[in-house]
Amino acid sequence: MAQHRLTYAFDAYCGWCYGFGPTIREFAVANADRIELSVLSGGLFTGPRAQPVAAFPYIAQADARIGELTGAVFGKGYADACAEGTSVLDSAAAATALAALREQAPGRTLECAAALQRAWYVDGRSLSDPATLRVVAEGLDGVDADAAVAAFTDPATRRTAEADFREVRRLGVDSFPTLLLHTPAGMRRLGGPTTSARALTRALDQH
User: Fold this and answer.
1) pTM
2) pLDDT of residue 57 exceeding 90
């Protein structure tokens, strides 16, 4: 039985989450015997903030910083999509895609999240496009791509994604990535986007 319950709040269109991805996956594997980890989409680009990537000129500078501090590598497809500028950063669509994959592989949400982020940050594929979800699903062992695409277009899956957003807000998360440890005294944040997996484990041990 898991000794510790944690929640990882991320956004598929968050560059810092992309940089943090290998760390959180390493941490989860190293502590698999003692943690229960939930992954929730945070809703970084929703409502009026869901705009073409060209509307966010700071992204290029942020990506350079992310690469410097985390070692993240951004692909040519992503660079081309940013240069072209019309791909819309819509976190609600991305969260719906994750919810569709999570339905197919409930114990592999971190893996699904990483696959979606690679689709954008490496290949430059829009996470609003069902064709992207199909490609991602086909690359995940045991996931039914047809079922995932069908779920993506189901309003119930969008409602699941929106429930993720509400839960993240209820937990008081206002930046991504955020890793939270549930304790009897309340929520405790573990580390930040540049924290190593070993440091996260040490922080968990201290609690």
Assistant:
1) 0.96
2) yes
